[in-house]
Specification:
It is built from 12 helices and 20 strands. The chain is α/β, with parallel strands linked by helices and 410 residues long. It folds into 2 domains: 157 residues, Lyase, Ornithine Decarboxylase, Chain A, domain 1 (Beta Barrel), CATH 2.40.37; 245 residues, TIM Barrel (Alpha-Beta Barrel), CATH 3.20.20. Helix 2 crosses helix 9 and helix 5 packs across helix 6. 44% of the residues are buried. The model has no long low-confidence stretch (mean pLDDT 95). Bound molecules: ligand LLP.
């Protein structure tokens, strides 16, 4: 995160001294940098300028309304996967004409709601869903423009739990099923297929996988034109990865932009992206307090007040989120340390470190890169209230979602 800086061994976010922030708020809490979000969206938009796409923010990455509003200021639409996300995006002021709805299990109520709101596209993921949309549209006396998500059977290098683009995954329809659906859809008078979508997974750095997808979509578009089934949009999904380790590389958006421009120049079709992590991932941190230092012969457990219920990525995907002390001590621990949370599971761990700056009980640490799939994956496990979220920009600090009260979750 560019907005996280060390000055005189102390950590600052957007020029705010984290140690001072902690005096105002109870740990643990999330802080998001509005400036970092803005910088991320600018990078995406400038890299993709030549293909002039609609960027839909994948709300599942971070559903804080203020975060969505920051993105909206930069002409961003939304990719939603539930009625809840759709309501949230609308409440944040995003125009329905910039909203796409993905997901394999949209219910009748959700489809009805999306149709009534007149969103840009409901992207269907199965023949059954297409039939259902048609039936609901008929009842509402409407002709609804829909997208179909293609499963391209392209494997992207990423954690298998977040890969979505191969035939073993539940997402989308295969190319052959797609054409079968097209040919048999004659009776479906209340829908019009105006979009093809594809999304091969998340935390992907390899542009090669995207190139394969572009090639396949180009072929599909050609075939569609030949058979008079032209579509207006191609939705290329999201999935662009960010660095979690210090020496990790970022997704090369400039290079990717060139590939997309080539595709656009040939196809002359409107392009949509559904980007989550790249826009918010590096813009969020969690501030946490050391509750106990538990010394064992094997290692020292640094027990912090953030648990896997507050930030589940390490427990679910064994994902690494670097933990930094808010104030560095020049002395180091003489044993390895493991950051763990208070939850009653061994998977409630945030990683092992050697030669770590000494921490005492009551000291503060910061868990980095928690702006995407942090708070949105959190739960009330162990009856712990969801934690507060704060947003900072150059000048101010604002609480945007309060910590839940235990009484309200009983
Ligand atoms: N579009 C669709 C249809 C998706 O399923 C997703 C993410 C996105 C767009 C946005 O992908 P992104 O740009 O954020 O990579 N919880 C996991 C990530 C799950 C991603 C789910 N789908 C994690 O913490 O790594």
């Amino acid at each position: 995160m560019d907005y996280l800086k060390t000055k005189n061994k102390k950590l600052f976010i957007n020029n705010f001294d984290l140690k001072k922030i902690v005096k105002k708020y109870k740990t643990p809490f999330y802080i998001y940098s509005a400036d970092q979000i803005k910088k991320n969206i600018k990078l995406v938009q400038s890299s993709l300028k030549k293909s002039n796409p609609l960027i839909c923010y994948a709300v599942k990455a971070n559903s804080n309304i203020q975060v969505i509003r920051e993105l909206k200021k930069n002409n961003v639409g939304a990719d939603v996967v539930s009625a809840g996300e759709l309501k949230l995006a609308l409440k944040a002021g995003i125009s329905p004409k910039k909203i796409v709805f993905s997901g394999v299990g949209k219910t009748e109520d959700e489809i009805k709601f999306a149709i009534q709101k007149g969103i840009l596209s409901i992207n269907a993921e199965s023949e059954s869903e297409i039939l259902s949309i048609n039936k609901i549209s008929k009842k509402l006396n409407k002709i609804v423009k829909i997208g179909i998500r293609i499963n391209p059977n392209v494997k992207a290098k990423t954690n298998k739990k977040i890969a979505t683009g191969t035939k073993v995954n539940k997402f989308g329809v295969s190319v052959s099923d797609f054409f079968q659906i097209l040919n048999s859809k004659k009776n479906l008078k209340n829908i019009k297929i105006h979009l093809l979508s594809v999304h091969i997974g998340s935390q992907i750095k390899d542009i090669g996988a995207y190139k394969k997808v572009l090639k396949l979509i180009s072929k599909l578009l050609l075939k569609l034109r030949k058979t008079n089934h032209e579509v207006d949009y191609v939705d290329l999904g999201g999935g662009m990865g960010i660095p979690y380790y210090k020496d990790d590389k970022n997704f090369d958006f400039k290079k990717f932009g060139k590939e997309v421009a080539k595709f656009y120049n040939k196809q002359k079709i409107k392009i949509i992206f559904e980007i989550g992590r790249f826009l918010t991932g590096n813009a969020g941190i969690i501030i946490s307090k050391v509750i106990y230092v538990k010394k064992t012969r094997e290692k020292y457990f640094i027990i912090i007040d953030t648990g896997m219920n507050d930030m589940a990525r390490s427990a679910i995907y064994e994902a690494f989120h670097e933990i930094l002390p808010i104030e560095k001590n020049s002395k180091k621990f003489n044993k390895k340390i493991e950051f763990v949370g208070p939850i009653c599971e061994s998977s409630d761990t945030f990683g092992i470190y050697k030669n770590y700056s000494i921490l005492k009980e009551g000291d503060l640490v910061c868990i980095t890169n928690c702006g995407a799939y942090g708070r949105t994956l959190s739960s009330n496990y162990n009856m712990r209230p969801l934690i507060e979220e704060i947003i900072v920009d150059k000048k101010k600090l604002k609480s945007v979602r309060k910590r839940q009260k235990i009484e309200n979750i009983i």
